[in-house]
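Work Package 4 report. The design task specified in the project plan requires that, given a folded chain encoded as structure tokens, an amino acid be chosen for each position. We show below one input record used in the internal validation round.
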């Protein structure tokens, strides 16, 4: 645990271990249009207690084979967990928009993702001496992710390829209810991946999630196991 700060405000950082089990699907239903399907079960410890449940869906529009945009909806439920638990379980409803661009630079596959989120979080409030979800608080967040992936053999990631992938994503709060921390969190990731023929990519990796709480004091340094399947199975039959 470490404490640093500005003036009299002392930051408190806790180190925790979590595990995220994830499915991402981007499936074409026509030449230009597709659907995004996503589910994440996030646990504190390997399976010990709930951290979050995240369900996300959206509509994709493909400008080219390497550029697409998405508009969607997400439901997130956050549970009390770890050393800095929330007062109670609470839900969040989220609208989101993004653009994703993929490029090939020699043997390096480079993906950039730009995302905006409009968040309606029913943060816990005290009601008759019991904490319960309150009225929805509206906030905005911007996210930027850059991912680099390299196959162990060959010049591109093909069916049956093993590869290594790294990314960094930072998140910035903005707008009226941004709170004490404009900087929300940073995620740094390293994983081993395998491209399953016809289905998609399976990755097992380590995520360092550095998250700043809305009180401006508490910081979570979360060491996270990630197991994820990202499928691009095509629902479109030409």
């Amino acid at each position: 645990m470490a404490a640093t700060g500005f003036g009299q405000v002392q930051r408190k950082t806790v180190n925790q271990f979590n595990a995220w089990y994830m499915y991402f699907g981007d499936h074409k239903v026509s030449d230009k249009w597709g659907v995004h399907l996503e589910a994440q079960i996030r646990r504190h410890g390997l399976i010990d207690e709930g951290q979050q449940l995240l369900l996300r869906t959206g509509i994709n529009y493909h400008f080219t084979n390497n550029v697409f945009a998405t508009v969607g909806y997400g439901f997130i439920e956050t549970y009390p967990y770890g050393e800095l638990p929330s007062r109670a379980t609470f839900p969040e409803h989220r609208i989101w928009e993004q653009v994703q661009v993929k490029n090939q630079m020699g043997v390096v596959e480079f993906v950039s993702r730009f995302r905006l989120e409009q968040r309606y979080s029913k943060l816990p409030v005290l009601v008759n001496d019991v904490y319960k979800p309150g009225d929805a608080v509206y906030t905005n967040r911007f996210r930027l992710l850059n991912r680099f992936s390299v196959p162990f053999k060959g010049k591109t990631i093909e069916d049956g390829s093993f590869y290594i992938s790294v990314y960094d994503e930072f998140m910035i709060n903005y707008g009226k209810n941004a709170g004490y921390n404009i900087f929300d969190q940073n995620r740094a990731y390293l994983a081993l991946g395998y491209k399953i023929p016809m289905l998609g990519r399976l990755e097992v990796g380590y995520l360092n999630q550095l998250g700043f709480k809305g009180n401006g004091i508490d910081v979570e340094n979360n060491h996270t196991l990630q197991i994820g399947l990202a499928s691009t199975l095509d629902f479109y039959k030409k």
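The chain has no helices and 13 strands. Validation will be extended to a larger panel in the next phase.
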